[in-house]
Amino acid sequence: MYVFYMSFMCIRSGGQSTLAKINLKLTVALTLLTSAAASNLKAPEHYEKLFGQWMSDFSMTFDKAEYQERLQIFSDADDTINLHNAKNSTFTMGHNEYSHLTWEEFRELKGIGQPLPPKPTLLGLSINESNKHTEAGPPPFAVNWWWDDDSGGDDDSSGGGSVDWVDSGAVTDVKDQGSCGSCWSFSTTGALEGAYYIANSELVAFSEQMLVECDTKDSGCNGGLMDNAFSWIQENGGLCTEEDYPYTSSGGSVSTCSSSSCTVVKGSTPSSWVDVKQSDAAMMSALDQQPVSIAIEADQQAFQLYSSGVMTGTCGTNLDHGVLAVGYGTMDGTDYYRVKNSWGSSWGDGGYIYLERGGDVADDGQCGMLMAASYPVL
């Protein structure tokens, strides 16, 4: 501020030569301020202190060589966070347990960003149509595939109150898939947990590991399809609880099926499942009834460092990640869907993300979330 104030005073009283010098000083000052905004002019010890606190918070240890590498990555992430948060954005970024990973490492860890073919195949899936109610028209939908739905329909996505199944008690604690590409199983159990709670007034955590190891219609840590999983659960006669069949694939390994060692929960067998029509109105109507399995494209760095608020802006529709829609509402004037992720509770807003509802992305939904929505019927 002192440089700007003195410059204006000198311009008022000086001649041409003085003015040229002042303009040069002003240009240099602006350049320095721009550089300061980009890097925040933070000294190395600032990053080291912040990184040390982060390591303590997340119980991380590194040898000397890796420490320097991870410190640099963390420092870059800190700059990215501060630059984004300095903008007038509807959402904020922040540090989490993934701040020491490059974007490429994070993508590989979570199995996102895989190239997609233009249209789906059914991967040999055989569907008994008498057991399946299809609202939107397409066949069972796969995370890592897309279906072009031009069914249209009236849409009213603005306002309309709010629904939150977390507050209603129908959603279990946030879980963590680890380095296994099992997002589809967490989306599946989340939808089943919600449906079971609504039908029985009891919140039961179902087993993702049972799906990862035993579901022959899907591919364990290498990906899967929520509708495939609903079909397998139906044929299997239900799922065991997470307590009886705990998750052990966080490191990416899969053992043989051990379903014989647990007992499926009575009443956990879907009688059918519904593919939600591709519109905000249909999604809101479905969420009025229960939590809904959805697929999104999570292939952008904003997802890695997302912290709070409603994610808006350009977002792709190459679906690569299964999550759970648990409600909708309005935050600071922006309509949203509340979505439960499976990257642990340190990520995002306590493990959740808010995606824009309506707006410029109304046809496909933010990050394609309207393109592959479904839920089980008990």
Automatic annotation (TrEMBL):
What keyword terms does UniProt attach to this protein? Disulfide bond, Signal, Zymogen
| An example Gene Ontology biological process | proteolysis
Annotated GO MF terms: cysteine-type peptidase activity
User: Which segments constitute the Cathepsin propeptide inhibitor domain?
Assistant: 51-106
- Would you indicate the residue range of the signal peptide? 1-38
The UniProt entry's sequence similarity note says: Belongs to the peptidase C1 family.
What is the name of this protein? Uncharacterized protein
Source taxonomy: Eukaryota, Sar, Stramenopiles, Ochrophyta, Bolidophyceae
